[in-house]
Specification:
The chain has two helices and six strands, in the order E-E-E-E-E-E-H-H. The chain has helices at residues 81-91, 94-112, and strands at 2-5, 18-23, 28-30, 33-48, 52-63, 66-76. The termini are close together.
């Protein structure tokens, strides 16, 4: 089962423009949930001559209990926004916070259904 926890999710109702796999074939256990894969997805929304590329970057977390896509970053972040977001996530211990936030959102979605 896949859930999308992104404000105005209609903006990402298509295939992403780019993606980076952060964790593949993983068996990370967090709060009794096995996390199989983590990806960052980039949806390019518009390009401004002065501000550059506007992107929505989401995190797609695949777990044994379901898959959830949550908002990771959004805004005018330039042409290399996805790589910069991935580097920030990996280098600054943001992965544990992302996992916890995702699991909270996934559990809330599962309780609703």
């Amino acid at each position: 089962m896949k859930f999308v926890d992104v404000p105005d999710s209609q903006r990402i109702k298509r295939e992403p423009d780019n993606r980076i796999v952060i964790l593949a074939d993983g068996k990370i256990m967090q709060e009794d949930v096995v996390i199989k894969q983590i990806e960052l997805l980039q949806y390019k929304i518009k390009n401004d001559e002065k501000l550059g590329q506007y992107s929505i970057i989401t995190a797609l977390i695949d777990t044994a209990q379901g898959t959830i896509e949550i908002l990771y970053d959004e805004g005018y972040r330039g042409d290399d926004a996805l790589n910069e977001s991935a580097n920030m996530l990996i280098q600054n211990l943001g992965l544990s916070g992302l996992i916890l936030r995702s699991l909270i959102s996934l559990k809330n979605q599962l309780e609703k259904n």
